[in-house]
Amino acid sequence: MMDWFDILINVLETTLITCFLFMQRTKDDRKTCIITFSYFLCALAFISIVNLYSVTEGYYVLIDVLIAAFYLRMINDGSWSKILTIAVIPDLSLTVTNNIYTILLMELFSVDSYQSYMVRYRIPVVVFIQVIHAVVFYLIHRYLRSLDKDISHRDMLISMLVIYLTVLIVQSFAPLLYESSIVMPEVRIGVIMTFLMSIAIAFLLHRINLENRELIRSREELNRLKYEKLLSGEIIAAQKQLRKLKHDISHLVNAIDNSKSIKNDEDVLYSSEIIKNKLKTLDHPVITPVPILDFVLNNKRDEAAEKGIDIHCMISLHDQIDMPDDELFLLVSNILDNAIRHIGIRKQIEIHIRQDKMMCIMSFSNSADRIVKEEEMHSNDYDLRGYGIETIRRITERNRGTVLFEQDPEFFHVQLCLQMKEAEGNPERY
């Protein structure tokens, strides 16, 4: 027969379950609050009726799960598989926690009978376990929120079935723990093994969630690569058209300049000169997987074009360079600043960048009319435009790279060998 304390504990336990299920809602209106209160009354009535005949729910726990599932269905838009899985969790948590708690008490205080122990310490023991229930429900809620939303229905149903079987196994041991005068060690071990199995189930769900996230990331990466491939094709086609158009316009401007009928037309000649100057600076932008490299190359190419210097880039790069952006910016800026500052009469700079497995090979060559002394490569001021050969060498070596300076009768060369950044989740390529 239940007394006032039993009724109070049933109210508290039902409130914890209701709050846990309510936090899984996707709907939030007045109707949801009414449904929640109705569920609370139904769940409280059910557990109270069961406790009139037994300390535990036993196999009647299935009815409790179905009541929770119907409640969740009305406040949550998720699939039935997800709803059934969540509906089983409160009973699993309560059943496993209560049994482990009971075993620990009996072991710590060397008690053979649960009933005899509860006669003396009933109130503090039951109140403390409700505090543990609240903490467990909160932790499970936090974990459920971190789970991916796209777990398959099959995985959800399998998880729900395994969790429910775990509940039934523990419920099978419960009468021996609470209603027997002597609890055999095998029963206690069986409950502990079931608890460990529930931990393994939680880990399995976590692994399913991680694999699902990885699959989604792989799909997104594949879609991104497909889009970049399509975009690259459009860029290449546009570059070809741009070069052809530039070639055709150059011929047209030359024809205008050589035409005898308009040689004396100053307006036409002036417009022709403007077009020729614009054609010199008209070129497709540099696009690589390294945004800071794009910025430096495009910026320096525009700066060189204003000084009548032609920069030609040949780039084959498909991964990130293993170097901080600020240092890569300073390194390439130094090299190109020096090349522009000491350009030869041919006014030509060649840039070749390619990737060889996990190495990035960079080559910068500028036309030079004389042997360039090292001290001439140093800037007289101290801004970020560059400090010369020593700075280039220091930055390169600090980032596990190598640099080589060479010069022939026509060009000054800077050769760099830098480390590539290993792709996340992939082994080093060979």
Characterize this entry briefly:
The chain has 430 residues and is an alpha+beta fold. Helices cover 64% and strands 9% of the residues. 23% of the residues are buried.
Structure report:
- By secondary structure, the protein is an alpha+beta fold.
- It is built from eleven helices and five strands; from the N terminus they run H-H-H-H-H-H-H-H-H-E-H-E-E-H-E-E.
- It has helices at 4-22, 30-51, 61-75, 80-108, 114-146, 153-178, 185-258, 266-281, 291-306, 325-341, 389-398; strands at residues 310-316, 348-356, 359-367, 402-407, 411-419.
- Strands 1-2-3-5-4 form a five-stranded mixed β-sheet, with helices on one face.
- Helix 3 packs across helix 4 (80-108), helix 4 (80-108) packs antiparallel against helix 5 (114-146) and helix 6 (153-178) packs antiparallel against helix 7 (185-258).
